[in-house]
Amino acid sequence: MSDAQQLRARIDELWSEIDLQKEMLKKLEQDRSLARRQLNAVMDPVACLPLEISSEIFLQTFGPSPLKPGARHAPMLLLNVCNGWTTVALSTPTLWTAIRIDFPRTNGLIQALPLWLECGRNRPVSLSLHGNLSTFDGVSTTIWQHGWQLKHLEIYDDFYYDEDSDKVFDRIIDIFSDDPTPRPLPLLETLTVGTGNAKRGFLSPQILQLLLLAPNIVSCTFENI
């Protein structure tokens, strides 16, 4: 075997060893994560309480304000503490019934939003949408598919942009961007639609369609639409 062949063989051998060590490191990290969750469960006084009391503690802690989907925000953050907290969070559907989404949306929201709504176990949902709603696409399908759960809906475009900027921004906000046939909204009681920029607006037929889909609506608020 020539020197070059020996070196190539040695390189292949080292690559195999590197792959093996990576797998071992991955396994060790998983074991560490599991041990940390188990330690949290042992040290956590909440784990010793009845489920009803633990659920109430979570509800009182995070209050009625809409929460943001994401691994770094409650209640999804609670799923990463320990098995006990995961059980409590998933057993408290009210914890998942108020959502605030800021646009542009974060990575992973398309995957996280359906899971969030499922955790609510068909409870009525309060949904608040803020930010640059011209980037509404990508999640509108999920939102309108769960329209039958919506009880309170706020759609407010409070995105500010400099008119002297070279960037081009949509002036029309399409709330049905990737779902042109939204479902009925039988539980919807309050609807807020508005924009903080008078030069951006919504499509009037879409607003009318929202109202027609919500036979039990009680209160509507419109601003600059």
Attribute tags:
alpha/beta, two-stranded parallel sheet, 39% helix, flat, F-box domain-containing protein, coiled coil
Give the topology, please:
Elements: H1 3-43, H2 51-62, H3 83-90, E1 98-103, H4 109-119, E2 125-131, H5 140-145, E3 150-157, E4 172-173, E5 190-195, E6 201-202, H6 204-213, E7 219-223
Parallel strand pairs: 1-2, 2-3, 3-5, 4-6, 5-7
Coiled coil: 11-38
Organism: Mycena albidolilacea
Protein name: F-box domain-containing protein
* Order of H and E elements: HHHEHEHEEEEHE
- How many angstroms does the end-to-end distance come to? 78 Å
Low-confidence stretches: none
Radius of gyration: 24 Å
The average pLDDT score comes to 82
The strand order across the widest sheet is 1-2-3-5-7
**Computed structural class:** alpha/beta
Question: What portion of residues belong to β-strands?
Answer: 15-25%
